[in-house]
DNA sequence: CCGTATCCATTCCGATACTG
DNA sequence: CAGTATCGGAATGGATACGG
């Protein structure tokens, strides 16, 4: 009766995205992958996630084309999970989510991990959205076109 | 025994963010709010979500400070749910998620709703992350500093 | 029209034991 | 170390009935 509705066929790209990464673990796995984590055990330790859940989430992300399972580089019989181009394309999502958290979910004295620009050694600056005129883009400057033909 | 672990105290801003918006509905509610939806019934119709779940999610987002419940503008006895500044700050997250979905989850001929720039009437251009030198920022240009003092 | 309350099925998730 | 199998409790989500 209460079968969960899939969002995979929605005409809204946000909904489709959430269908894949809109759970408690997917984006944290992707975050770790950006941070160089590749092995099952590394994910497990970093996330403190149950192993069966991790197995399931890795499998789903591989099926979704976000991760790819490749033979381990150390010659062991196991696998490593690396980001595909599709997975790497999630980088802006992780960064904006991170910046929202930094700016809105921490008290002034609280310690938090930060994303650092290698070149400058400084925290990655705020993401700004640019409109067609090159100016910053705010919610009020946009609207959703309900259904658009292919691009 | 199997109580879900809260991510609210994590030192990672991504984890804290996911603790609030990392479920199936929260970001879709926020997306609708950006699109002008304010009323319970509008959310319910747009999302095709069960009413008890919607009640729960709206309450949680209000508690989290993402939405604010205000008296209905039409004088009825009910409420409207509007984005707080904290909620509006999620705009880049929605946009990047949308763009990831558009670029990676649709076939070439498939119709999808699009975010349009009011000024130009054209789709909002790709978000680019800028490093300290003003150049585009890629995953390889960054690393996570494990624990940073307050900013 | 706006919610709340209840019931039930499904899903999520953690703990643990087990295998190679 | 890298998973798989199983279990039970908690959370999620849908249908629906009910009250303001």
What does this 3D model show about the protein?
Chain A is α+β, with helices and mostly antiparallel strands and 151 residues long. Chain A has 6 helices and 4 strands; from the N terminus they run H-H-H-H-E-E-H-H-E-E. Chain A has helices spanning 13-21, 26-34, 40-47, 51-63, 85-88, 91-104; strands spanning 67-71, 79-83, 112-117, 142-148. The N and C termini of chain A lie far apart (38 Å). The interface between A and B is large, with 80 and 81 residues. Strand 3 of chain A pairs antiparallel with strand 4 (142-148) of chain B, so a sheet runs across the interface. Chain B binds a DNA duplex (20 and 20 nucleotides) through helix 3 and helix 4.
Brief sketch in words of this structure:
Two copies of one chain form a homodimer. The first copy, chain A, has about 150 residues and is an alpha+beta fold. Helix content of chain A is about 40%, strand content about 15%.
Distance between the termini of chain A: 38 Å
**Strand-residue proportion of chain A:** 15-25%
Number of strands of chain A: 4
Name the pair of protein chains with the most residues at their interface, and give those residue counts.
Answer: A-B, 80 and 81 residues
Largest sheet of chain A: 2 strands, antiparallel
Overall pLDDT score of chain A: 92
Assembly type of the chains comes to: homodimer
Give helix and strand order of chain A, one letter per element, not per position: HHHHEEHHEE
Order of strands across the main sheet of chain A:
1-2
Runs of chain A in which pLDDT lies below 50 for 5 or more consecutive residues are none
Helix/strand-derived class of chain A?
Answer: alpha+beta
Computed Rg of chain A: 18 Å
